[in-house]
Amino acid sequence: MKERLRTLLQPLNLAGLFTLVAVGMALRWMPPERLPYGLALVVAFGALLLVTDMWPRVTWLRPVSIVLMPLIALTLIWLDPRPSVAPVLLVVWTAVMALTISLRTTMIAVVVVDIAYYFLLRSDDHSAPLTVVFIHGGFQAFAALCAWYAASAERARDALARVNADLLATRALLADSTRDNERLRVARELHDVAGHKLTAMTLNLRALAADPAFAGRQEIVVAQQLSSELLADIRGIVQAIRHDRGLDLGTALRALAAPLPRPSLRLSIDDSVHVTDPAVAEAILRLVQEALTNSIRHADADVVQVRLSCDAGRLHIRVEDDGCVRGVLREGNGLAGMRERIVAAGGSLDLSRSARGALRIEASLPA
Predict the structure, then answer these.
(1) Which residue blocks in the chain are alpha helix, DSSP H?
(2) How many domains does the chain have?
(3) I need a surface site. Which of 154, 213, 292, 321 has the fewest CB within 10 A?
């Protein structure tokens, strides 16, 4: 309910409703016997204007609305063809269509509807039908261009957000990989340098303890004990560093989704998941990135759930959103690239539909 109210209060929807209220107020000059029909048509137009935004997952609503809206506007003009504000509805319809389909198709549809508008005025013996149509056609062209540029700017913003998310996630993964490599280097240095010298020190202390001149000296016994303990501590630290290696996938994946306005990411990573290979981490990152992109473009999803688990030496990734895949499930360039990347990393990929029609991605990689 809150989401639909937020959609209703968007600036474009508020502007459209304000225009409809103005048109409804102007209908008071319509002949009284036709007024109820006119008001009903304005209400129907408003419902079609809002219904596609209020229920975006009902895919057939938008094309049906785009077809019915000009018919309602032309019917309203036919009820009262005298100069009025009813043609403004055609301007609103043009803006809605330019936000939905290509600019070329929009302009062709506008020309067809304006021809019908011209004949309506001519059939009523209007004194200058062509002039009126040209005036409103200019407003329609202006609305179409404004809406098209607004949609283009929004697409560019979303593309920039995706690129930014990709850079943030890659940077996080690279920084974590660099830290992991540095920890491994320090562990090797401790083992090879400090461990070697402590071993040599232990051997020398043992030789001193065997010398009759130093036999029974408590200081040598203590030094032997300390060197042995220190050598054991260093070996324990090196083992812990090697055991705790692993890339921070959680930070990288959250950075991937953070700049996107939607969908939101619900991430679950089991404690048993430890990825040390940057190639495997990169494959997981790109899989989730492509899943987010598909959810935006094709499923109109609000939430994407990602779960990572480890079992029997394999890393399992499961991705599912709350959207609905339109049409037949086909592997486009994005999904095909996802499969190729997973296979190249030694894994496998399965695509399926959930019970509600959402895309489900299940991948398995070597742990």
Answers:
(1) 2-8, 11-26, 35-54, 61-79, 88-100, 103-123, 129-189, 195-210, 218-243, 249-257, 278-294, 333-344
(2) 2
(3) 213
